[in-house]
Amino acid sequence: MRWLRRTTRHAKPGRVAALTAGLVGVLALPAAASASVWHLDEGSGTTAVDSGGRNNGKLKNVQVAQRPAFSGTAYRFNGVNSIVTMPASTTLNYSPTSAQFTVTVHVAFTVVPSAAVGDYDLIRKGFSGTAGGYYKLEIFPSSDHKQGRALCQLRGAKGTAKLTGGPNLATGTMHSIQCVVQPTSVGLVVDGATVQTKAVTIGAITNSSRFTMGAKSTGGDWFNGLLDEVSVLG
Asked: Domain with 37 in it: what CATH number?
């Protein structure tokens, strides 16, 4: 099975080397039927610009122009009330007619989610009980809350998948996390290495929920750290 490198076709000029350097060993993505790419490079204001031109987001209590970043600058989330929210959009749903659907984030953090916090939402569209399914990427803590690892979870019209694993990401440096959905499988890719795959048919995800970064749309699971170069391609 071929796991695929994050596309650079929507990247800003001069970013190709930087974007591909963090995903060594994963092959090139096919052209995306639809794409939203948030570089998170804004130096001011309260809008997260989607370079795909479809899904701009609204910042709340987020610090812009932060480092370290994967490329350019990053957003800092305070672990208390920071969130970026996009309006509900069908372009961020998953259709199994696409050869592949890939959600990518880049994160840097040192504080592992506590027992009180539970876990960190990095991106989310919908909830476990949402009509039409849902998907999310999280940082999930070890039982002793000393390490934080990637988690990808989805529910579609035909099946569910929950994948977690890879190295401890609470290092303060940028790491890439990808959830790669194909018609009959799901893969979790961390720093360019496939850490878990599952043979499963998810089926369509067709919810009307908002897409969020850094927390649930209703609040909670507040991320404490930096996010950069977020994309939904499929």
From this structure: 2.60.120.200
Q: CA distances (Å), 202 to each of 154, 160, 185, in order?
A: 8, 6, 8
- Amino acid occupying residue 195: V
Beta strand spans in 90-168 (E): 101-108, 120-125, 134-141, 148-155, 160-165
The structural domain count of the chain equals 1
pLDDT tens digits, 194-224:
999 999 999 999 999 999 999 999 999 999 9
DSSP state of 87: P
Tokens of 141: 């803590």
Show the domain range for 135.
4-233
Whether this prediction's pTM lies above 0.85 is answered by yes
Mark 158-173 as b/e (b = at least 16 C-beta within 10 Å).
eebbebeebeebbeee
Which residues, 6+ apart, have CB-to-CB distance to 63 below 8 Å? 75, 76, 78, 82
Judged by DSSP in three states, 54 sits in: coil
The amino acid occupying position 119 is D
Work out the average pLDDT over 169-173.
98
